[in-house]
Every structure is written in structure tokens, then in C-alpha cells.
Amino acid sequence: MLYYVIDAFTETRFGGNPAGVVIHENLDEEFMQKFAAEVRFSETAFIKKIDNKNFEIKFFTPTSQVNLCGHASIASFKALLDCNFIEDNNTYFMQTLAGTLPVDVNHSFIMMEQAEPKLGKVFNDYDDLSDIFKINKNQIGDISFKLVPQAASTGLWDIMLPLNSKDAVNALKPNFKSLVEYTKIHDVAGVHAFTLDTEEGIALCRNFCPLYGIEEEAATGTSNGALTYYLFKNKVLSNFNQNYSFLQGYSMGRPSHIMTKLINKNDLRVMVGGNAVILTKGILL
Fold first, then answer.
1. Which residue positions are annotated as catalytic (predicted)?
2. Which structural domain range is residue 70 located in?
3. Which residues 6+ apart lie within 8 Å of 30 measured at CB?
4. What is the DSSP secondary structure assignment for residue 79, as one 8-state letter?
């Protein structure tokens, strides 16, 4: 079995978000969970080839299985390119707990379609969020748009938390124990904090998911896919088939650039993609 460590959403080693990738034929989920806990990446992907176009991919954090993971998907197809299971400039399909999703590979740049985009509960009471993140309630929102905290998903539910400045985003120091309880109560994976106050890209983001053993993550494809849909529904974004860039990981010293795109006006979907760099590979005994 081949095992990779790959940095996703970056063009340089030690940037982006690292993921473990295992290409296997018959591993059981008990082994997958124990292996993910051992290597302790935010997510490890386990790939099983079905045929030349289709691959089953399962995603595990150190503590549990999750339906979908953007950066580990990007890493997975980088690994499949490297071991010649797929060819460049083609479309493939990955079977996940979030459904069967197409993945485009073009000049080694990988774009994956997300699950059906959805908006959920609006969080109008800012007291709990301001206490958990140790911020003033007046920092929540945006000057130019009437943005409020709201759950969103393109395969994994997160609370989109708009903040009015990059200083507010950079200063976040959440109480992780309280955040675990808050996300449990509201049945979401985590909180995706962002601001439109950025000179580069659409938004500067930070993602917190301690419920699944991840205090902070350097690049989250599903969360930025959900953010793209949230911003579309709030009339911040409007153009289809245009690449949008989101920044993440800067507070962790792992700069990440996540590209998204709105497609299919009549049956809207979000695509998420980026580059990836192989750090190491070997044999899993």
C-alpha cells in the first residue's frame, strides 16, 4: 500500500494544509481510524480504486470519520497522479459519504465539485459567539454587507462567522472546550471565521473544528466552498464560472490559497480546488 504526505492548497512545501493519503485495496474502517489517530493529520484520506474513472475515498480525522474533506481530496488526486492511477487533463469521480462528486484534473491543478450547497440556521444572538472567541459583539458582521453568522454546507456544516476587520480575525483566541460544546449543540462541525477586509482574494479566513480533534486548520476546502455559497446568497459574489480566491492558514504560518467557482445556474454547485505538493511517500506495511 502506498502512503503519502501531501501539502494541499499550496505550491510550496510546508505551506497549505498537510494530509495523509493511503491507497489501498481492502483496509477496514477500524484500521483507518487507528491509522489516522496515529499520524494525527487533520484528515487522512483512504483511496480504493473502483475502475479507471471512479475511486472510493474515506476521510478520517484523528477522532472520527467525516463525510468530505476538501484538502484531503486535493491531496488524494495529487497522489493518484503521482502513481499513474489517473492521467492529467481528465475528469474523474470520487465516491464519498457526501455523494459521488466529479473531480477535474487540468495541468495538475485539481478542482472538485462539492455536495449540494445549503444554508442553515442564522445565529442572531452574538453573546455566546463573542464569549467563545473572546471578541466584542460589535466586531461581528461587515460594514458593506449585512452579513450575519449562519450555518452553511457543501458537504460539511460549519458556522460562517463574518468579522469586520482582518485584525479581528487575526486576534481570535477561542475557548476550545466551549466551542466543542457549542458545535455539538448546534450540530455543526466547526466555525469558519472570515473577513472581507483583505487586499488579496475575496476573504481572509480561519477555521476551528475542535469537535473533530482539530483546533485550527490551515486550509479547508469544504468550508470555503460553503462560504462561497453563503457570499453568493448574500449578494457579495454573483459571477458564475469565475475563479474566486480565499486565503487561510496565515495565522499558522502555513499560507494557503483556495480557489472556488460557482457553476450551473439552474442547479447551482460550487467547485473548490488548488495545487498540491508531495512532501514524502512510502510503503505502508
1. 43
2. 2-114+273-283
3. none
4. H
Go through 244-267 and write b for each residue having 16 or more CB atoms within 10 A of its CB, e for each that does not. Answer: bebbbbbbeebbbbbbbbbeeeee
Of the residues 11, 25, 29, 43, only one is catalytic, namely 43
Q: Does 146 share its domain with 171? A: yes
* CATH number, position 56: 3.10.310.10
Instruction: Please give the average per-residue pLDDT across 86-103, as a whole number.
Output: 97
Q: Is there a single domain that holds both residue 224 and residue 278?
A: no
Do residue 124 and residue 254 come from a single domain? Answer: yes
Both 79 and 198 in a single domain? no
Closest CA to 258 of 280, 227, 231: 227
Grid-cell match 468550508, residue found = 223
In DSSP terms, 112 is beta-bridged to: 103, 272
Answer whether residue 217 shows pLDDT above 90.
yes
Same domain membership, residue 104 and residue 174: no
| Grid cell of 270 as nine digits | 460550487
248-267 confidence digits (pLDDT tens) = 999 999 999 999 999 999 99
Q: Note the pLDDT of residue 146.
A: 92
